[in-house]
Amino acid sequence: MFVNQIAVFLENRAGRINEFAQCLAKANINMIAMSIADTTDYGILRVITDDNEKAMKVLKEGGFNIASTYLVGFEVDDKPGAMQRVIDILDKKQINIGYLYSFVRPIEKKAIILIKVDDNEYVANILRENGITLIERNIL
Questions:
Q1: Mean per-residue pLDDT, 17-46
Q2: Minimal CA–CA distance to 4: which of 122, 114, 123?
Q3: Among 95, 80, 101, residue whose Cα is nearest residue 126
Q4: Per-residue pLDDT tens for 55-104?
Q5: 82 burial type by CB count under 10 A (0-12 exposed, 13-18 middle, 19+ buried)
Q6: pLDDT bracket for residue 42 (50, 70, 90)
Q7: C-alpha span between 122 and 95 (Å, rounded)
Q8: Which domain CATH number covers 23?
Q9: Residue 43 and residue 17: Cα distance in Å, rounded?
């Protein structure tokens, strides 16, 4: 139900994302999901790979400043209103979502949603109680 994510702090300059991607590619690590938020001077690249433990090791060795955190992952049908239903459930419980990102699995017709919240266990229980399917990293 919890998905480990790597946050990489990058200088906001041309070529830096490519250096990050090359580091993972050379180690034969596949990026499953990625999100980037930026400011004037730096960006935070959030990534989930097929081997986060190995990715963290090679990124550190490559001189990247990284952190790791866990997100709550769940799936919804890939149709209008499905994601809004879950957000409404969380809103009624006054859960703040720090950020989220998602991707679609077209063959299964499912959207995978990853959210950053203050209390993963509490949110996972709320989702479970409302019939929302939680996911684990190994099924991404």
A1: 90
A2: 114
A3: 95
A4: 999 999 999 999 999 999 999 999 999 999 999 999 999 999 999 988 88
A5: middle
A6: confident
A7: 10
A8: 3.30.2130.10
A9: 10
Chain centroid, CA 6 distance in Å:
8
- Asked if pLDDT for residue 10 goes beyond 60, the answer is yes
What is the residue type of 54? K
Residue 76, SS3 per DSSP: strand
Q: Which positions ≥6 away from 126 have C-beta within 8 Å?
A: 89, 90, 93, 95
β-strand pairing of 133-134 with 65-77: antiparallel
> Do 80 and 127 sit in the same domain of this protein?
yes
Q: Which domain holds residue 96?
A: 70-139
Same-domain check for residues 7 and 63: yes
Q: At what angle do helices 120-129 and 82-92 cross, to 10 degrees?
A: 120
Query: Residue 116: which of 78, 72, 82, 80 has the closest Cα?
Result: 72
Whether residue 41 is predicted with pLDDT greater than 80 in this model: the reply is no
From the list 31, 26, 125, 24, the residue with the least C-alpha distance to 74 is 125
Q: Residues 19, 8: contact at Cβ < 8 Å? A: no
